[in-house]
Design a protein that fits this description.
single chain; about 190 residues; alpha+beta; Helicase, Ruva Protein, domain 3; Dna Ligase, domain 1; four-stranded antiparallel β-sheet; 7 helices; 4 strands
Length: about 190
């Protein structure tokens, strides 16, 4: 295993902006290969930007609920602040938008850099992208919690293994002392003969 130097960690932090702990961990995972560590961080960042199907399904359900309640006035899809799709509710966009109102449809639109907005009859706006970001954030937090629990379990297992090793070492020392005492007793008995 390669010795991870402070210079390597600093270089990775400088180039990517990750924390010291993250930089050290990814460098250990890549055996000190800074370019590979950068690539893995870039790939991880891209993976984090992908949206969970569960999160998207939750958002789709909320959108459909707003449409079915009749509070939605129009659905707009924007790209670079330009409206590329504007469907008034009077046209019955539920039927028109059925293929779009799926996790895959919304995910595809968002991953291509579009913004989805539902304007309600009262003038309020539902920012679908924001809803997805929040839902994805919850998924990410759950994953991070799971990761932390796994780290704790690993540390606990390491501590227990260390305790077992200490117990074994102590039993070995006790056995060694006992054998030495018995050997001396036998030696004394032999000398008496």
């Amino acid at each position: 295993m390669v010795n991870i130097t402070l210079e390597m960690v600093d270089e990775l932090i400088e180039k990517t902006g990750v924390s010291y702990e993250q930089a050290k961990r990814i460098l250990q995972e890549t055996d000190g290969d800074v370019p590979l560590a950068i690539q893995r961080l870039v790939n991880k960042e891209q993976d984090d930007k992908h949206f969970s199907t569960d999160a998207l399904d939750e958002v789709v359900a909320k959108i459909k609920e707003a449409i079915e309640k009749g509070t939605a006035a129009r659905l707009m899809v924007k790209k670079d602040d330009k409206i590329v799709l504007n469907i008034p509710a009077v046209l019955g966009f539920v039927g028109l938008m059925n293929p779009f109102l799926t996790a895959a449809g919304i995910g595809g639109v968002i991953l291509t850099g579009h913004e989805i907005v539902i304007e309600n009859k009262d003038g309020s706006i539902i920012d679908v992208n924001e809803m997805i970001d929040k839902a994805a954030g919850k998924v990410k937090e759950t994953g991070e919690d799971l990761y932390e629990k796994m780290k704790e379990a690993k540390a606990e297992a390491a501590n227990k293994a260390e305790d077992v090793a200490d117990d074994f070492e102590q039993h070995f020392e006790d056995l060694k002392d006992d054998l030495q005492e018995r050997a001396e007793d036998v030696k004394d008995d032999v000398e008496k003969l």
